[in-house]
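Q: My collaborator sent me two sequences in one message, no labels, and asked for predicted structures for both. Can we handle them in order? The first one she listed is below.
A: Yes, handling them in the order given. First sequence, followed by its structure tokens:
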Amino acid sequence: MLLYHYIRHPRQTGAICSSSNKLSKMITTNMGIEQANNIIELGAGNGIFTKTILEKKNPDANFFAIEINPKIAKALSTKFNTLDIEVGSANNLKNMMAKRSMQNADIIISSIPWAMLKQYEQKILLEQIYNSLQNGGYFATFAYILPTIMATNFKKQLFNVFSNVEKSKIVWKNIPPAFVYYCKK
């Protein structure tokens, strides 16, 4: 399914195959997801990160996922029938949070294809994510180890917006291999 959507909308889908369980475990560690009250997932895709978030989060935590592709979102809502999923762009993050009376997020996890976004798009979205986090909150996203100009630009943007950025070990059991950026506000 991802390959089909990638061919049709590469800037929205960003990958030809699903992230691995290893990457899913890595992106949900080191941030205290078990104690978080408000969690948001950006670019939920086929739900590999969603599944891990649902397994790890406190049952009383507020959690919603955002997916821009309506067909993927529909498949995701079938897979997780109680999932609160918003169909739309993460650029509307603050409005989506307001609909749920969520002032700030403790954790935002993203699988948005950052390297496919233009530099100004990266900047606008990262600033919105930063402003949506509570002080001490975490933003986690991943990048592939394949260096590109846009990936380098994204890394610069991360360090411009967040003063505390750490990188995980490489997850070799992912196609292509990837690592996680943990960014603390």
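Q: And the one she listed second?
A: Here it is, processed independently of the first:
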Amino acid sequence: MKIWTRKRLFAGLALILGMLMTLTVTTGSRDAALAVDWETNSEHSSAVTSTAVPKQVAIVIDDFGNNMGGTELMMDLEIPITVAVMPFMSTSQRDAEWAFKAGHEVIVHMPMEPFRGKKSWLGPGAVMTDLTDEEIRNKVNAAIDNVPHAIGMNNHMGSKATSDARVVKIVLEVCKERGLFFLDSKTNSRSLVKKTGQELGVPVVENNLFLDDIASKIHVKKQLRKILTHLNEEDRCIAIGHVGISGNHTGTAIRESIPELSKQFEFVKLSSFLPQSQPQP
């Protein structure tokens, strides 16, 4: 009876020991598998992060060409900007050359007829809706000739002209002939520029945000933060500011915001937003 009891006791101990050894091996294997899985996931996560395309923003500054306030401040910004130069003004050619040498892109800031506003605000050489086809064509060609290094064009004012199918067609035809893209400043929500550009095969991009519709540094910084809101839904944003009355406010706000904003997105040239099917100038 005692011998049988001892045998059962030894057998039970052996069974328990075997179970413990099995549990140790299984747990070790599971932990090893988890360790491998963690490494795999970490490497995958790192790869995704490293290949992610950053959000991009193009800053366009309008109204160069008349030695306006903030001109030097804008030219000295340490980010790429697009300098929109009004033709036939006192410093049009100087500002275009200055921007080009500073590494900025240059476009023609083409005066075009608005629904409202003083005619004197347009400047010389404006495209009006009552002009003949030939007169419009001549004005656009002359404006391009007057702004050195221009690779594109955008509208100065122009709420009326950009909603006139005939006018838009002629302007874009000249742009196509001269190899220029067009930035629609979107002064009119019913603009026909994008639609006509698609029909003619002219590269067209559109403004998303005005930075200085109110001339104060606080407002410009508020608008710069709105870029981040736009980028929550889109990968790219075009924002337009101005030299002139708001020039120093706008330039200072941009300069002070660059360090923080550069952590959120990449400042790029406007031409990088052109449709990929179209050759960049």
